[in-house]
Every structure is written in structure tokens, then in C-alpha cells.
Amino acid sequence: MTQVEEFHNANGGHYRCTVKNGKKYGPGKYCYPNGACYDGEWVDDQYTGTGKYTYPNGDVYEGDFVNNMKQGKGKFNSKESGEVYEGEWQADKKTGKGKYSYKNGDNYDGDFVDDLKHGQGVYKFKSGDIYDGEFKKDLFDGQGSYKFSSGDSFTGLFKENQKVKGLMKYSNGDEFDGEYSNNQKVSGKIKFQNGDAYDGPFKDDLPHGRGKANFQNGDKFEGDFLQGKLHGSGTYTTASGDVYEGQFDNNLKNGKGVITYQNGDRFDGEFKQDLKAGQGKLKTKDGEYNGQFVNDKFEGQGKFTYNNLDSYEGQFKNGQKNGQGEYKFQNGDSFKGTWVNDERQKGVYTFSNGDTYDGETVNCKAHGKGTFKSQLGEFTGDFENGQRKKGKMKLDNGEVYEGDYQNDKRHGKGIYRYKNGDVYEGDWVNDLKEGKGKYTTKARDIYEGDFKQGKMHGQGIFKYSSGDIYDGDFLDGLKQGKGKYKYASGAIYEGEWNQDKFHGQGTYKYANGDIYEGQFVDDVKSGFGKLRFGQQTYEGHWKEGRPHGRGKLIGQNGKVDEGNWKQGEFVEEGDVD
């Protein structure tokens, strides 16, 4: 029998519903002492059909029931949290298709199993992030796609809310395709929007371990990474063809390594902060350097061997020869001394023939103070542009020159001391005495006057150690022209000279007062002349120093003998050939 009844039981509960055979059937409302209420359809004393259940805390479920359990479709509202589920239920649990709105603003639309998100679904975060894919036990698990509000997106495999393997696209254009652990990259390929790319292991979301990188400028790297940077050993190849193989630290070449340049150059040595530093060997088209480097340049002690077999061994600074060093030329010459900015300064230059220069240089030439030693002797003094300028030359034969030079020859003022004791002081031109000068012999003969081509030439005075003096003209080292010769004895000749002899017209005053005026030939009276001797006078022709030919003798008493003379004898008339 069916009837509508309303009850109030002893524990405070009450209900009003249809009762059939002592059991609730059909629509009815039942409120529990704890404040919970069910208002809906009943079958055999159980919620079955459509109904609304209000929990003591104010939560509300409205939907399908079967045997006191939520089953079918229904909507659950949590008063406390404000969360809402609307969808399918089974055995009092969210199972099947449904939508869940979380109190934090998140939303889920998809499959449920036993109150958990399980199967296919879309989860939208309040932040704007969206996951679309598979779920297992309330977690992202399986294939799915995650779109971030930032514009980033991941498509691939998830495990327990974490990315496992897939493609990550970043809003800036970067892309990563690979494996994850704890939501961080562990291995894969990443392409950056600037064109750079990396393939290899990761740690803390950064390249870490042995990997490969390709850069947008065409450069390539294969080797070790640490926290996203080149670190350890590896090979770096530039777009131009240069190849570095060695150690890296913080993206920079650091430690030992080898660079092979596309032009054929090769460096094998140490690096610091991406620059050559420490010991190394560099081969170039010019030659080979083996030594120390600082800031990518030769600095410290080193040796450079040129392709032409020249070599320099010594100190370098800022890529140039600086300090003490020795340069050896392939022809056997060498320079050992001080260098500044690749230029020789003060030092010793040794020629292959044994000659040496010890002194200052400018532009690789002797310049300034120095000493030059050769097979001929030793010069000490000033140099200019590789040539002697002024100084003292000691010849191996004992002779010494001190004075000016031009074009590496004696030129200007100078003093020359001969090994025989002679001394010349005066002007020089092209290694020869020329101009004004003074020549003193060991015997104390002195010539002072003009020189030309190394000989007495022009006007001069010759003072003999005997006391004789000549004042007059010279030609090619000999008395020639006009001149005056004073003998220590008191005799004087004044007149014409030829090749160091009286020759031509002249006057000879004897020490005893005799005087000859006339012609001479080779130091001998010859030609026409007048001789006054004692109280007599002879005037006429001479030959070989004696009257010969036509002449007259005027005696002291006035007597005149005039006629022919032969070899100093008066023959009156006749042949005097």
C-alpha cells in the first residue's frame, strides 16, 4: 500500500515522502539530524533517480542517484571552497565526462575516474596556461599539449604532471625537442630564434655535458658544456674555417689548445680568457714563434724563426721585439742587444766576415754612438743612418784617423796619424786629403797649405826639418809653378818650378851673396842668365850649370871678355855646341 507520510524520529531526523510497503518511494525529502538533507526520488528506501543532496557544511549535489550514491550526471557545489563539478558520476565518485571549476579560478573539462582526472581532458589555469591531453590519477600523464600564458607551448609526453619528452616552443621563437626530468631538460635539441642551436644533454635546464652547438654566424662547437656554457674540452670551428681544439672555461678558450687557421697558420699552446697566454708555438706564413704570449700577442721570452731562415731569440712585448735579444740572419750576420718596437737600438752587430758594430741603432741602422770593428781596424764615434759620421778610426796597421765622415768616407775636418809617424791635420774629401791642411812628417818636415786628391796641390808652405822653407805653388804633390825656397844656409831661390825642380825663369841668391838671375832646367842653370859673383858678372847663355854659348864676362877691373864659352871656359870665337 502506498501513502504519503511525514515522520520525526527520536534522533532528530525528519522526512516527508511517499511510503510503499514501509519503504520510501518516489519523490521525497529527508533531513538528517546533522543538518544534511536529501530532496529527490527514492526507490526501496534509497536515493535513486534525480535529487538534490545538501551537506551539513552547505555543499550541494544536484543530479542523478542510484542506491544512495551519486551516479549518472550531476553537479556538485562546494559552499566552502566555491569549487564546482558538473558531469558524470559513478558509485558516488566523479567518473566519466565532467567539468570542474576550482576556487583558484582554474577549470578542467574532461574525463574522471574515481574522483580523479583520468583520461583525456583540458585543464585551464587562471593564469591563462592550458593543458590539453591525457591524465592519470589527477595528474598530467601521457600525451598532451601545454600552452603557457606567456605564449610558450609544449607538446609531447607527460608523467605525473611533469614533461618527459616532446617539443617545447617558446614565444621568443626558441624551440626545444627532447627529454625532461623533473620538468627540466635532460637531453635534446634546442634551436634559438637567433639561429643558434644545441644538441646534447642538459642539467638545470641548461646545456650540460658533451654536446654540439651550431651558431647563426656559421660557427660550430662540439664538446663539453657546463651550466649552459662551453666548459671543458671541445672543438670550435668558425665559419671562416678556423678550428680550435682544446680547453674552454665560461665560454672562453682557457687552458691548453690548438688553433688551425684557414690560411694555414697554426697555434699550439696555452689560452686565458679567449686569448693566447702563457707558453705556445705559432706557425705563420712568415715563420714560427715559440715562446710566451700575453693578450694574444708575443710577450716575454721567445724565439721567432723566419721562413728565410733568419731568427730572433729574446724578449717580446705587445707582439714586437722589445728588450734584450739576438737576431741571426741567414747570411751569417747577427745582432745582439736592445730592441724597442721591433727596431734595433743599442747592441752588437756581428757580420758574417767577422766585422762587428757595438752601439746605438735607429731603423735597424747604426745611428748614434758606437764602435765598428773590421779586418781593417776599429772605429769609435758617431754614426748616422748606418754610416760613420764623426769619430776615431784605428787601423790594424797602426794608423789612426780622427775626424769627420760623409758617406762612410773621411770627409770634412780630420787628423790622420800614419804608422811611420807622419801626421796630417786638415780637410778631407772622399777619403782623400783635399782643401786646407797641415802635414807633418816624423822627421818634422811640415807642409801647410792646399791639398787635392790626397796630394799637395795649390798654394802652400813646406818647412823642412833641415831649416829649409818652400813657399809657393804645388801640383800633384810636387813643387810646380812659382815659389820661393829658402835654404837654412841662407841661399834663396825664387822663381818657376817643374816637378819639384827649378825650371824656367828664376833668381838664385847664394849664401855668399852671389846672385843668378835667369833660366833653369831641372834644377840647373840652363838657357840665358846673369850671374853676379864677387866683383864680376857673367851674362849670357848657360848649359848644365856652366856658361856655354855666347856670353860676356865683366871683370872687377871693368875688363870685358865677350865671345863664346864652352862648358864654363872662354874660347873666344869658335864652335861651342
From TrEMBL:
The keyword Cell division appears for this protein: no
Record SUPFAM superfamilies: Histone H3 K4-specific methyltransferase SET7/9 N-terminal domain
Alphabetized Pfam families for the sequence: MORN
Keywords: Repeat
Gene3D superfamilies in alphabetical order: Histone H3 K4-specific methyltransferase SET7/9 N-terminal domain
Region ranges (Disordered): 544-577
PANTHER family reported for this sequence: RADIAL SPOKE HEAD 1 HOMOLOG
Protein's UniProt name: Membrane occupation and recognition nexus (Morn) repeat protein
Protein's organism: Hexamita inflata
The organism's taxonomic lineage, starting at the top: Eukaryota, Metamonada, Diplomonadida, Hexamitidae, Hexamitinae
